[in-house]
Specification:
This protein has 549 residues and is α+β, with helices and mostly antiparallel strands. The protein is built from 19 helices and 22 strands. The relative contact order is 0.17. The N terminus is likely disordered.
Length: 549
Protein backbone atom coordinates (compact mmCIF):
# COMPACT_ATOMS: atom_id res chain seq x y z
CA UNK A 1 0.00 0.00 0.00
CA UNK A 2 1.18 3.52 -0.79
CA UNK A 3 0.55 6.22 1.80
CA UNK A 4 1.01 9.85 0.78
CA UNK A 5 1.67 11.71 4.00
CA UNK A 6 0.09 15.01 4.96
CA UNK A 7 2.22 17.98 4.02
CA UNK A 8 1.66 21.69 4.35
CA UNK A 9 3.39 24.65 2.80
CA UNK A 10 5.05 27.14 5.15
CA UNK A 11 2.68 29.78 6.54
CA UNK A 12 3.96 32.51 4.23
CA UNK A 13 3.25 30.31 1.22
CA UNK A 14 -0.13 29.23 2.56
CA UNK A 15 -1.03 32.91 2.70
CA UNK A 16 -0.90 33.06 -1.06
CA UNK A 17 1.21 35.87 -2.45
CA UNK A 18 4.59 37.15 -1.46
CA UNK A 19 5.54 40.71 -2.30
CA UNK A 20 7.71 39.59 -5.21
CA UNK A 21 4.72 37.80 -6.73
CA UNK A 22 2.70 40.99 -6.56
CA UNK A 23 5.20 43.42 -7.99
CA UNK A 24 5.72 41.84 -11.39
CA UNK A 25 3.97 39.76 -13.99
CA UNK A 26 4.32 36.09 -13.19
CA UNK A 27 6.20 33.76 -15.45
CA UNK A 28 4.37 30.69 -14.23
CA UNK A 29 2.25 29.92 -17.27
CA UNK A 30 3.77 26.47 -17.55
CA UNK A 31 2.91 25.75 -13.93
CA UNK A 32 -0.64 26.85 -14.64
CA UNK A 33 -0.95 24.40 -17.48
CA UNK A 34 0.46 21.68 -15.25
CA UNK A 35 -2.01 22.39 -12.45
CA UNK A 36 -5.14 22.93 -14.51
CA UNK A 37 -4.64 20.32 -17.17
CA UNK A 38 -2.88 17.48 -15.44
CA UNK A 39 -0.04 16.90 -13.06
CA UNK A 40 2.08 14.92 -15.50
CA UNK A 41 2.05 14.67 -19.27
CA UNK A 42 1.96 10.94 -20.07
CA UNK A 43 2.20 9.01 -23.27
CA UNK A 44 -0.30 6.44 -22.14
CA UNK A 45 -3.89 7.61 -22.13
CA UNK A 46 -6.40 5.99 -19.82
CA UNK A 47 -9.97 5.50 -20.95
CA UNK A 48 -12.03 6.41 -17.90
CA UNK A 49 -11.70 7.47 -14.29
CA UNK A 50 -14.69 6.72 -12.07
CA UNK A 51 -14.81 8.65 -8.81
CA UNK A 52 -17.06 7.77 -5.88
CA UNK A 53 -17.98 11.11 -4.31
CA UNK A 54 -19.39 11.63 -0.84
CA UNK A 55 -21.67 14.44 -1.98
CA UNK A 56 -23.26 15.70 -5.16
CA UNK A 57 -23.39 19.43 -5.89
CA UNK A 58 -26.90 20.83 -5.35
CA UNK A 59 -26.62 22.64 -8.67
CA UNK A 60 -24.34 22.57 -11.71
CA UNK A 61 -24.34 26.38 -11.78
CA UNK A 62 -20.72 27.24 -10.86
CA UNK A 63 -21.86 30.37 -9.01
CA UNK A 64 -24.77 28.84 -7.11
CA UNK A 65 -22.78 27.75 -4.09
CA UNK A 66 -19.19 27.77 -2.85
CA UNK A 67 -18.79 24.22 -1.52
CA UNK A 68 -16.15 21.56 -2.07
CA UNK A 69 -18.56 19.49 -4.18
CA UNK A 70 -19.52 22.47 -6.35
CA UNK A 71 -15.91 23.58 -6.77
CA UNK A 72 -14.74 20.05 -7.53
CA UNK A 73 -17.16 19.78 -10.43
CA UNK A 74 -16.72 23.30 -11.75
CA UNK A 75 -12.92 23.11 -11.87
CA UNK A 76 -13.13 20.26 -14.37
CA UNK A 77 -15.27 22.32 -16.75
CA UNK A 78 -14.52 25.97 -15.97
CA UNK A 79 -11.14 27.61 -15.48
CA UNK A 80 -10.42 30.50 -13.15
CA UNK A 81 -8.09 33.42 -13.56
CA UNK A 82 -5.87 31.69 -11.02
CA UNK A 83 -6.20 28.15 -9.79
CA UNK A 84 -5.33 27.08 -6.26
CA UNK A 85 -2.71 24.40 -5.87
CA UNK A 86 -3.06 21.65 -3.26
CA UNK A 87 -2.06 24.09 -0.50
CA UNK A 88 -4.26 26.89 -1.91
CA UNK A 89 -1.40 28.90 -3.31
CA UNK A 90 -2.47 30.85 -6.44
CA UNK A 91 -1.11 29.67 -9.79
CA UNK A 92 -1.91 31.56 -13.04
CA UNK A 93 -4.52 29.91 -15.24
CA UNK A 94 -6.65 32.08 -17.56
CA UNK A 95 -4.53 34.94 -16.28
CA UNK A 96 -0.92 34.89 -17.45
CA UNK A 97 0.13 37.20 -14.65
CA UNK A 98 -0.54 40.42 -12.82
CA UNK A 99 1.00 43.80 -12.11
CA UNK A 100 0.34 46.36 -9.40
CA UNK A 101 0.05 49.82 -10.98
CA UNK A 102 -0.48 51.58 -7.66
CA UNK A 103 -1.88 50.48 -4.26
CA UNK A 104 -5.45 50.78 -5.60
CA UNK A 105 -4.97 49.52 -9.16
CA UNK A 106 -4.07 46.10 -10.51
CA UNK A 107 -3.73 44.87 -14.09
CA UNK A 108 -4.38 41.25 -15.01
CA UNK A 109 -3.02 39.94 -18.31
CA UNK A 110 -5.23 37.25 -19.88
CA UNK A 111 -4.19 34.30 -22.01
CA UNK A 112 -4.70 34.82 -25.74
CA UNK A 113 -4.84 31.18 -26.83
CA UNK A 114 -8.00 30.09 -25.03
CA UNK A 115 -11.37 29.09 -26.47
CA UNK A 116 -14.55 27.93 -24.81
CA UNK A 117 -15.83 24.45 -25.54
CA UNK A 118 -18.12 25.86 -28.25
CA UNK A 119 -15.18 27.51 -30.03
CA UNK A 120 -15.85 31.05 -28.82
CA UNK A 121 -12.61 32.91 -27.97
CA UNK A 122 -12.08 33.80 -24.32
CA UNK A 123 -11.76 37.57 -23.74
CA UNK A 124 -11.97 40.20 -21.04
CA UNK A 125 -15.71 40.49 -21.68
CA UNK A 126 -16.19 37.03 -20.19
CA UNK A 127 -14.33 38.05 -17.03
CA UNK A 128 -16.34 41.23 -16.55
CA UNK A 129 -19.59 39.36 -17.08
CA UNK A 130 -18.57 36.57 -14.70
CA UNK A 131 -17.67 38.96 -11.89
CA UNK A 132 -21.02 40.71 -12.14
CA UNK A 133 -23.11 37.57 -12.53
CA UNK A 134 -21.46 35.60 -9.71
CA UNK A 135 -22.49 38.24 -7.18
CA UNK A 136 -26.13 38.29 -8.26
CA UNK A 137 -27.42 34.76 -8.94
CA UNK A 138 -31.18 34.76 -8.24
CA UNK A 139 -32.24 32.68 -5.22
CA UNK A 140 -28.69 31.46 -4.58
CA UNK A 141 -27.83 30.72 -0.93
CA UNK A 142 -24.38 32.25 -1.53
CA UNK A 143 -22.96 35.37 -3.17
CA UNK A 144 -19.39 35.85 -4.34
CA UNK A 145 -19.76 39.44 -3.20
CA UNK A 146 -17.74 38.47 -0.12
CA UNK A 147 -14.79 37.94 -2.49
CA UNK A 148 -15.54 40.39 -5.30
CA UNK A 149 -17.41 43.26 -3.65
CA UNK A 150 -15.88 46.74 -3.90
CA UNK A 151 -13.83 45.77 -6.94
CA UNK A 152 -14.34 47.83 -10.09
CA UNK A 153 -13.33 46.03 -13.28
CA UNK A 154 -12.36 47.79 -16.50
CA UNK A 155 -11.59 46.30 -19.88
CA UNK A 156 -8.33 47.73 -21.22
CA UNK A 157 -8.39 45.47 -24.27
CA UNK A 158 -9.53 41.95 -25.10
CA UNK A 159 -6.75 40.41 -23.03
CA UNK A 160 -6.06 42.95 -20.31
CA UNK A 161 -8.30 44.00 -17.43
CA UNK A 162 -7.78 46.60 -14.76
CA UNK A 163 -9.15 46.18 -11.24
CA UNK A 164 -9.58 49.17 -8.98
CA UNK A 165 -10.21 48.88 -5.25
CA UNK A 166 -11.35 51.63 -2.83
CA UNK A 167 -8.47 50.76 -0.50
CA UNK A 168 -5.31 48.63 -0.69
CA UNK A 169 -6.11 44.93 -0.97
CA UNK A 170 -3.19 42.60 -0.24
CA UNK A 171 -5.07 39.41 -1.13
CA UNK A 172 -6.79 40.46 -4.33
CA UNK A 173 -5.32 37.56 -6.31
CA UNK A 174 -6.41 35.09 -3.63
CA UNK A 175 -9.94 36.48 -3.77
CA UNK A 176 -10.43 36.47 -7.52
CA UNK A 177 -9.16 32.89 -7.79
CA UNK A 178 -12.38 31.73 -6.11
CA UNK A 179 -14.60 32.35 -9.14
CA UNK A 180 -15.16 30.11 -12.17
CA UNK A 181 -15.08 32.08 -15.43
CA UNK A 182 -18.11 31.49 -17.64
CA UNK A 183 -18.92 32.47 -21.20
CA UNK A 184 -20.67 35.80 -21.58
CA UNK A 185 -22.21 34.59 -24.83
CA UNK A 186 -23.82 31.64 -23.06
CA UNK A 187 -24.34 33.15 -19.63
CA UNK A 188 -26.24 36.27 -20.66
CA UNK A 189 -29.21 34.15 -21.69
CA UNK A 190 -28.80 31.34 -19.17
CA UNK A 191 -30.51 30.69 -15.86
CA UNK A 192 -29.44 28.31 -13.12
CA UNK A 193 -31.90 25.81 -14.60
CA UNK A 194 -30.04 26.01 -17.92
CA UNK A 195 -26.83 25.04 -16.15
CA UNK A 196 -28.64 22.20 -14.39
CA UNK A 197 -29.95 20.96 -17.73
CA UNK A 198 -26.40 21.09 -19.08
CA UNK A 199 -27.15 23.47 -21.94
CA UNK A 200 -25.11 26.28 -20.36
CA UNK A 201 -22.21 24.12 -19.15
CA UNK A 202 -19.73 25.63 -21.58
CA UNK A 203 -16.35 26.43 -20.08
CA UNK A 204 -12.68 26.62 -21.02
CA UNK A 205 -11.59 23.80 -18.70
CA UNK A 206 -9.93 20.46 -19.42
CA UNK A 207 -13.24 18.58 -19.53
CA UNK A 208 -16.52 19.04 -21.35
CA UNK A 209 -19.86 18.35 -19.71
CA UNK A 210 -21.70 15.31 -21.08
CA UNK A 211 -24.54 14.36 -18.75
CA UNK A 212 -25.97 14.77 -15.27
CA UNK A 213 -28.38 12.24 -13.84
CA UNK A 214 -29.06 13.51 -10.36
CA UNK A 215 -28.22 10.95 -7.71
CA UNK A 216 -26.56 8.67 -10.27
CA UNK A 217 -23.63 10.29 -12.06
CA UNK A 218 -22.08 13.25 -13.81
CA UNK A 219 -20.23 12.36 -17.01
CA UNK A 220 -17.39 14.40 -18.49
CA UNK A 221 -15.15 13.96 -21.51
CA UNK A 222 -11.75 15.43 -22.21
CA UNK A 223 -11.67 18.72 -24.09
CA UNK A 224 -9.25 18.07 -26.93
CA UNK A 225 -8.88 21.78 -27.63
CA UNK A 226 -7.79 22.59 -24.09
CA UNK A 227 -5.16 25.31 -23.88
CA UNK A 228 -3.10 23.56 -21.18
CA UNK A 229 -1.69 20.07 -20.81
CA UNK A 230 -4.42 17.60 -21.55
CA UNK A 231 -5.37 15.38 -18.62
CA UNK A 232 -4.54 11.70 -19.04
CA UNK A 233 -8.11 10.55 -18.36
CA UNK A 234 -10.20 10.63 -21.53
CA UNK A 235 -13.48 10.34 -19.65
CA UNK A 236 -14.51 10.98 -16.06
CA UNK A 237 -17.58 9.78 -14.20
CA UNK A 238 -18.45 11.37 -10.86
CA UNK A 239 -20.73 9.04 -8.92
CA UNK A 240 -22.39 10.40 -5.78
CA UNK A 241 -22.34 7.63 -3.17
CA UNK A 242 -23.31 9.20 0.14
CA UNK A 243 -23.43 5.86 1.97
CA UNK A 244 -20.00 5.25 3.46
CA UNK A 245 -20.15 1.43 3.26
CA UNK A 246 -21.41 1.60 -0.32
CA UNK A 247 -18.66 4.02 -1.36
CA UNK A 248 -15.95 1.81 0.12
CA UNK A 249 -17.55 -1.29 -1.41
CA UNK A 250 -17.54 0.38 -4.83
CA UNK A 251 -13.78 0.93 -4.54
CA UNK A 252 -13.07 -2.60 -3.32
CA UNK A 253 -15.18 -4.17 -6.07
CA UNK A 254 -13.63 -2.08 -8.83
CA UNK A 255 -16.80 -0.14 -9.64
CA UNK A 256 -14.80 3.07 -9.06
CA UNK A 257 -11.08 3.80 -9.07
CA UNK A 258 -11.05 6.60 -6.49
CA UNK A 259 -13.15 7.65 -3.50
CA UNK A 260 -13.06 10.77 -1.38
CA UNK A 261 -13.98 11.29 2.28
CA UNK A 262 -12.86 7.84 3.37
CA UNK A 263 -15.04 7.02 6.40
CA UNK A 264 -13.31 6.53 9.76
CA UNK A 265 -14.73 3.04 10.16
CA UNK A 266 -12.96 1.88 6.98
CA UNK A 267 -9.63 3.64 7.38
CA UNK A 268 -7.72 0.76 9.00
CA UNK A 269 -9.11 -1.72 6.50
CA UNK A 270 -8.04 0.38 3.52
CA UNK A 271 -4.63 1.13 5.03
CA UNK A 272 -3.85 -2.58 5.25
CA UNK A 273 -5.01 -3.35 1.71
CA UNK A 274 -1.99 -3.64 -0.61
CA UNK A 275 -4.24 -3.19 -3.64
CA UNK A 276 -5.04 0.39 -2.61
CA UNK A 277 -3.27 3.69 -2.01
CA UNK A 278 -4.23 6.28 0.57
CA UNK A 279 -3.53 10.01 0.78
CA UNK A 280 -4.53 12.55 3.41
CA UNK A 281 -4.37 16.18 4.43
CA UNK A 282 -5.73 18.29 7.29
CA UNK A 283 -8.47 20.48 5.87
CA UNK A 284 -8.64 24.22 6.37
CA UNK A 285 -12.36 23.75 7.06
CA UNK A 286 -13.56 24.53 10.57
CA UNK A 287 -16.53 22.56 11.84
CA UNK A 288 -18.25 24.67 14.48
CA UNK A 289 -21.37 25.38 16.50
CA UNK A 290 -23.25 28.50 15.45
CA UNK A 291 -25.40 30.39 17.97
CA UNK A 292 -28.47 32.58 17.56
CA UNK A 293 -27.06 35.90 18.80
CA UNK A 294 -29.77 38.20 17.51
CA UNK A 295 -33.27 37.16 18.61
CA UNK A 296 -34.73 37.91 22.03
CA UNK A 297 -36.66 34.64 21.76
CA UNK A 298 -35.02 31.85 19.80
CA UNK A 299 -37.28 29.31 18.05
CA UNK A 300 -35.73 26.10 19.39
CA UNK A 301 -35.03 27.12 22.98
CA UNK A 302 -37.42 26.39 25.86
CA UNK A 303 -37.31 26.26 29.61
CA UNK A 304 -36.85 22.84 31.20
CA UNK A 305 -40.62 22.82 31.79
CA UNK A 306 -41.33 23.67 28.15
CA UNK A 307 -42.10 27.33 28.81
CA UNK A 308 -41.05 30.24 26.62
CA UNK A 309 -37.84 31.87 27.85
CA UNK A 310 -35.56 34.65 26.71
CA UNK A 311 -32.76 33.53 24.42
CA UNK A 312 -29.95 32.24 26.69
CA UNK A 313 -27.50 32.03 23.79
CA UNK A 314 -27.14 35.81 23.86
CA UNK A 315 -25.29 35.50 27.18
CA UNK A 316 -21.54 35.02 26.96
CA UNK A 317 -21.46 32.68 29.94
CA UNK A 318 -23.92 30.31 28.26
CA UNK A 319 -21.86 30.17 25.07
CA UNK A 320 -18.74 29.62 27.16
CA UNK A 321 -20.49 26.81 29.02
CA UNK A 322 -21.50 25.11 25.79
CA UNK A 323 -17.96 25.30 24.45
CA UNK A 324 -16.40 23.97 27.67
CA UNK A 325 -18.92 21.12 27.81
CA UNK A 326 -17.59 19.68 24.55
CA UNK A 327 -14.82 17.11 24.84
CA UNK A 328 -13.14 17.72 21.50
CA UNK A 329 -10.49 15.06 22.04
CA UNK A 330 -13.19 12.45 22.64
CA UNK A 331 -15.09 13.58 19.55
CA UNK A 332 -11.95 13.24 17.48
CA UNK A 333 -11.09 9.78 18.75
CA UNK A 334 -14.62 8.34 18.99
CA UNK A 335 -17.22 9.97 16.74
CA UNK A 336 -14.58 10.83 14.13
CA UNK A 337 -12.32 7.86 14.83
CA UNK A 338 -9.15 9.91 14.53
CA UNK A 339 -10.20 11.95 11.51
CA UNK A 340 -10.57 15.29 13.27
CA UNK A 341 -8.10 17.70 14.89
CA UNK A 342 -9.55 19.74 17.81
CA UNK A 343 -10.12 23.39 16.83
CA UNK A 344 -9.89 26.56 18.88
CA UNK A 345 -10.20 29.19 16.16
CA UNK A 346 -11.43 29.82 12.63
CA UNK A 347 -8.44 28.40 10.74
CA UNK A 348 -5.68 25.91 11.60
CA UNK A 349 -2.93 27.59 13.64
CA UNK A 350 -0.34 27.27 10.85
CA UNK A 351 -2.47 29.39 8.51
CA UNK A 352 -1.32 32.97 7.90
CA UNK A 353 -3.30 35.38 10.08
CA UNK A 354 -4.26 32.91 12.79
CA UNK A 355 -3.64 33.38 16.51
CA UNK A 356 -1.09 30.56 16.86
CA UNK A 357 -1.26 30.40 20.65
CA UNK A 358 -5.03 29.95 20.68
CA UNK A 359 -5.85 26.32 21.39
CA UNK A 360 -9.14 24.46 21.77
CA UNK A 361 -11.34 25.37 24.73
CA UNK A 362 -10.50 23.25 27.78
CA UNK A 363 -13.11 20.59 28.49
CA UNK A 364 -14.59 20.90 31.99
CA UNK A 365 -18.06 19.81 33.07
CA UNK A 366 -17.64 21.58 36.41
CA UNK A 367 -16.64 24.88 34.80
CA UNK A 368 -19.49 24.59 32.29
CA UNK A 369 -22.06 24.05 35.05
CA UNK A 370 -20.67 26.97 37.04
CA UNK A 371 -20.95 29.24 34.01
CA UNK A 372 -24.59 28.20 33.47
CA UNK A 373 -25.35 29.02 37.10
CA UNK A 374 -23.61 32.39 36.77
CA UNK A 375 -25.72 33.12 33.69
CA UNK A 376 -28.92 32.43 35.64
CA UNK A 377 -29.62 28.89 34.44
CA UNK A 378 -28.67 26.61 37.37
CA UNK A 379 -31.16 24.02 36.12
CA UNK A 380 -30.29 24.51 32.47
CA UNK A 381 -32.80 24.76 29.63
CA UNK A 382 -33.95 22.76 26.59
CA UNK A 383 -32.65 23.25 23.07
CA UNK A 384 -32.57 21.54 19.68
CA UNK A 385 -29.26 21.10 17.88
CA UNK A 386 -29.62 20.99 14.10
CA UNK A 387 -27.14 19.40 11.71
CA UNK A 388 -26.77 18.00 8.24
CA UNK A 389 -26.47 14.23 8.00
CA UNK A 390 -24.71 13.82 4.66
CA UNK A 391 -22.27 16.72 4.28
CA UNK A 392 -19.34 16.10 6.63
CA UNK A 393 -17.83 12.82 7.77
CA UNK A 394 -20.03 11.40 10.54
CA UNK A 395 -21.78 14.77 10.94
CA UNK A 396 -24.94 13.26 12.44
CA UNK A 397 -22.88 11.19 14.89
CA UNK A 398 -20.91 14.29 15.90
CA UNK A 399 -24.17 16.17 16.54
CA UNK A 400 -25.50 13.32 18.69
CA UNK A 401 -22.27 13.20 20.70
CA UNK A 402 -22.34 16.95 21.30
CA UNK A 403 -25.97 16.72 22.41
CA UNK A 404 -25.05 14.11 25.01
CA UNK A 405 -22.24 16.32 26.30
CA UNK A 406 -24.54 19.34 26.62
CA UNK A 407 -27.20 17.28 28.36
CA UNK A 408 -24.63 16.32 31.00
CA UNK A 409 -24.30 19.97 32.08
CA UNK A 410 -28.05 20.53 32.23
CA UNK A 411 -28.82 21.70 28.70
CA UNK A 412 -31.36 19.10 27.60
CA UNK A 413 -30.49 18.77 23.93
CA UNK A 414 -32.53 17.16 21.18
CA UNK A 415 -31.01 16.57 17.74
CA UNK A 416 -32.61 17.05 14.35
CA UNK A 417 -30.61 16.17 11.25
CA UNK A 418 -31.49 16.42 7.58
CA UNK A 419 -29.91 16.22 4.11
CA UNK A 420 -27.56 19.09 3.33
CA UNK A 421 -29.74 20.25 0.43
CA UNK A 422 -32.58 20.82 2.90
CA UNK A 423 -30.34 22.05 5.70
CA UNK A 424 -28.58 24.91 3.89
CA UNK A 425 -31.60 27.06 3.03
CA UNK A 426 -33.07 26.56 6.50
CA UNK A 427 -29.79 27.42 8.23
CA UNK A 428 -29.00 30.35 5.98
CA UNK A 429 -32.20 32.34 5.80
CA UNK A 430 -35.32 30.29 6.17
CA UNK A 431 -36.65 32.13 9.21
CA UNK A 432 -38.40 35.50 9.66
CA UNK A 433 -36.48 38.54 8.40
CA UNK A 434 -34.07 36.29 6.54
CA UNK A 435 -32.58 34.85 9.72
CA UNK A 436 -31.67 31.22 10.28
CA UNK A 437 -34.51 28.95 11.31
CA UNK A 438 -32.27 27.39 13.93
CA UNK A 439 -31.02 28.31 17.40
CA UNK A 440 -27.94 26.10 17.72
CA UNK A 441 -26.52 24.35 14.70
CA UNK A 442 -23.47 22.50 13.42
CA UNK A 443 -21.87 24.01 10.34
CA UNK A 444 -18.58 24.17 8.47
CA UNK A 445 -16.55 26.91 6.84
CA UNK A 446 -13.49 26.52 4.65
CA UNK A 447 -11.80 29.67 3.39
CA UNK A 448 -10.86 29.60 -0.27
CA UNK A 449 -7.96 32.07 -0.06
CA UNK A 450 -5.51 30.04 2.01
CA UNK A 451 -5.30 32.59 4.85
CA UNK A 452 -7.48 33.89 7.70
CA UNK A 453 -9.11 37.01 6.30
CA UNK A 454 -12.01 35.35 4.47
CA UNK A 455 -12.98 33.30 7.51
CA UNK A 456 -12.99 36.47 9.61
CA UNK A 457 -14.97 38.47 7.05
CA UNK A 458 -17.45 35.66 6.42
CA UNK A 459 -18.04 34.07 9.83
CA UNK A 460 -17.58 36.81 12.46
CA UNK A 461 -17.88 40.17 10.66
CA UNK A 462 -21.20 41.94 11.21
CA UNK A 463 -23.63 40.87 8.49
CA UNK A 464 -23.83 43.42 5.69
CA UNK A 465 -25.17 42.04 2.43
CA UNK A 466 -24.26 45.12 0.41
CA UNK A 467 -20.63 45.01 1.54
CA UNK A 468 -20.37 41.24 1.24
CA UNK A 469 -19.57 40.88 4.94
CA UNK A 470 -20.83 38.17 7.28
CA UNK A 471 -22.05 35.95 4.44
CA UNK A 472 -21.62 32.91 6.72
CA UNK A 473 -22.49 34.75 9.93
CA UNK A 474 -25.79 32.92 10.22
CA UNK A 475 -26.16 33.61 13.94
CA UNK A 476 -25.63 37.38 13.41
CA UNK A 477 -22.79 37.87 15.89
CA UNK A 478 -21.61 41.49 15.93
CA UNK A 479 -18.70 43.28 17.61
CA UNK A 480 -17.61 46.73 16.32
CA UNK A 481 -14.05 46.18 17.56
CA UNK A 482 -13.76 42.98 15.55
CA UNK A 483 -15.21 44.73 12.49
CA UNK A 484 -12.65 47.53 12.86
CA UNK A 485 -9.73 45.11 12.99
CA UNK A 486 -11.02 43.13 10.01
CA UNK A 487 -11.40 46.35 8.02
CA UNK A 488 -7.88 47.50 8.89
CA UNK A 489 -6.40 44.12 8.00
CA UNK A 490 -8.11 44.20 4.61
CA UNK A 491 -6.18 47.36 3.71
CA UNK A 492 -2.81 46.63 5.32
CA UNK A 493 -0.08 45.76 2.81
CA UNK A 494 2.58 45.01 5.41
CA UNK A 495 2.31 41.25 6.01
CA UNK A 496 3.48 41.39 9.63
CA UNK A 497 1.02 44.10 10.58
CA UNK A 498 -1.80 42.44 8.67
CA UNK A 499 -1.20 39.10 10.39
CA UNK A 500 -1.26 40.83 13.79
CA UNK A 501 -4.57 42.56 13.02
CA UNK A 502 -6.21 39.31 11.92
CA UNK A 503 -4.85 37.47 14.96
CA UNK A 504 -6.30 40.10 17.30
CA UNK A 505 -9.69 39.95 15.57
CA UNK A 506 -9.56 36.19 16.06
CA UNK A 507 -8.70 36.50 19.76
CA UNK A 508 -11.56 38.90 20.45
CA UNK A 509 -14.20 36.97 18.48
CA UNK A 510 -13.15 33.67 20.02
CA UNK A 511 -13.20 35.32 23.46
CA UNK A 512 -16.79 36.29 22.68
CA UNK A 513 -17.48 32.70 21.58
CA UNK A 514 -18.91 34.15 18.38
CA UNK A 515 -18.96 30.52 17.28
CA UNK A 516 -17.59 27.45 19.03
CA UNK A 517 -14.93 25.81 16.83
CA UNK A 518 -15.05 22.03 17.21
CA UNK A 519 -12.55 20.41 14.84
CA UNK A 520 -10.65 20.54 11.56
CA UNK A 521 -11.31 17.42 9.45
CA UNK A 522 -8.50 15.14 8.34
CA UNK A 523 -9.58 14.13 4.86
CA UNK A 524 -8.57 10.89 3.18
CA UNK A 525 -8.76 9.72 -0.42
CA UNK A 526 -8.22 6.13 -1.50
CA UNK A 527 -7.42 4.87 -4.99
CA UNK A 528 -6.71 1.53 -6.55
CA UNK A 529 -3.13 0.27 -6.67
CA UNK A 530 -0.92 2.11 -9.13
CA UNK A 531 -2.82 5.35 -8.64
CA UNK A 532 -2.36 8.10 -6.08
CA UNK A 533 -4.36 11.20 -5.28
CA UNK A 534 -2.65 14.51 -4.56
CA UNK A 535 -4.48 15.48 -1.35
CA UNK A 536 -5.72 19.05 -1.01
CA UNK A 537 -6.46 21.37 1.91
CA UNK A 538 -9.60 22.65 0.14
CA UNK A 539 -11.17 19.15 0.01
CA UNK A 540 -11.68 19.18 -3.75
CA UNK A 541 -11.60 15.91 -5.65
CA UNK A 542 -10.20 16.41 -9.14
CA UNK A 543 -9.41 14.02 -11.96
CA UNK A 544 -6.47 16.32 -12.74
CA UNK A 545 -4.93 15.50 -9.34
CA UNK A 546 -5.35 11.75 -9.78
CA UNK A 547 -2.07 10.24 -10.93
CA UNK A 548 -1.75 6.87 -12.64
CA UNK A 549 1.32 4.71 -12.98
Amino acid sequence: MTIVENSAAPPNERAGLSRRHVLALSGAASAAALLAGGAVARAAEIEELRIGCFTEPPSLDPHWQNTAASNSLSQHIFDRLFHADENQKPVPALAEGWKVIDPLTWEIALRKDVKFHDGTPFTADDVLFTFERSQNVPNSPFSFKSYLGNKKLEKVDDHLIRIRTPSPNPILINEIMTVSIISRKVGEKATTDDYNRGTAMVGTGPYRFVEWRSGQHIKLERHEGYWGNKPEWMRVMLRPISSNPARVAALLSGDVELIDFVPPSSLERLQSNKALSLSSKVSNRMIYLAFDHSRARSPFVKGIDGSEIDNPLRKLEVRQAISKAINREALGSRALEGMGVPAGQLVPPEIFGSAPELGPDKFSVADAKALLTKAGYPNGFAITLHSSNDRYVNDAAVAEAIAQMLTRIGIRTAVETMPYSVYVPRATGGGPEGLSQFSLFLYGFGGQTGEASVALRSVVATYDKDKGLGSSNRGRYSNPEVDKLIGEAAQELDDTKRAALMAEATRISMGDVAVAPIYFPVNYWSAKSGMTYRARTDERTLAMDTLAG
